[in-house]
Specification:
single chain; alpha/beta; TIM Barrel; seven-stranded mixed sheet
């Protein structure tokens, strides 16, 4: 059986990581006839409301998430319900204010979040702690090196294949290379290959995991929605000229 990978993207709200605006991400999804898209900016929900509103207008199901990182290790948390949104907000606040190790903040023991990770060391630590209720290996299907590093966990963890969407085309590449070189304190020429992968469709290679969730499976299990009718949420209003 072939599984459609989940497309996870960052917006320009992720400093030195995201190139495109929320509207550009949603337009790209519409152009490729995707029915859903996940926004996971770094340690923040900065574009979540704007993203949800734009997806709703475009007829796309928005998945709200964040890349949680302590600067060394990272995992993507996707909100399933209102409890999960509260837990994600709490984790982001803790990471922003207290700067703790990621493994001390994120404990994948709740059904309220999908926790996706492709860091073998971090996954093994959570497995040893038996904190795996909401934990999934997240093979980046365009990155064979990371995929191989996860094979040792294939007998113990289910997986959600993902495509990390940072670049739409070759035209985006020069700006993105400069951004990532600054962020990584390196030269453009020495950037890792996975940092400069341009989107070329949705690959679905055979994956050695015993249990896989497709993008549609994830969407069907995520019920969280912003209530724009009854809740006051921040919205950007451009200044009149």
């Amino acid at each position: 059986m072939r599984y459609s990978p989940l497309v996870v993207c960052k917006s320009h709200y992720s400093f030195l990581k995201g190139v495109h605006s929320v509207s550009e991400l949603v337009s790209f999804a519409v152009e490729h006839e995707w029915g859903y898209l996940c926004l996971a900016d770094e340690n923040g929900l900065y574009g979540a409301v704007e993203f949800a509103a734009a997806c709703d207008k475009a007829g796309i199901v928005p998945l709200i998430g964040a890349e949680l990182t302590d600067g060394k290790r990272s995992a993507v948390a996707i909100v399933r319900d209102r409890e999960g949104y509260s837990r994600l907000s709490e984790a982001i606040t803790h990471l922003q204010l207290d700067k703790p190790p990621l493994c001390d903040v994120v404990a994948p023991v709740s059904d309220g979040l999908f926790t996706l990770c492709d860091d073998s060391a971090l996954l093994q630590r959570w497995v040893r702690r038996k904190e795996t209720d909401g934990l999934y290996a997240a093979p980046v299907v365009s990155d064979t090196t990371r995929l191989r590093s996860l094979c040792s966990l294939s007998a113990r963890l289910p997986a959600i294949p993902v495509v990390m969407l940072n670049l739409f085309s070759e035209e985006d590449l020069p700006l993105y290379k400069v951004m990532r070189a600054i962020a990584l304190n390196s030269t453009v020429a020495s950037l890792p290959a996975e940092e400069t992968a341009v989107f070329h469709g949705l690959p679905t290679p055979p994956l050695p995991f015993p249990s896989l969730l497709s993008a549609a499976d994830v969407v069907n299990r995520c019920t969280f929605q912003f209530d724009f009718d009854t809740q006051h949420l921040p919205q950007f209003t451009p200044l009149s000229s």
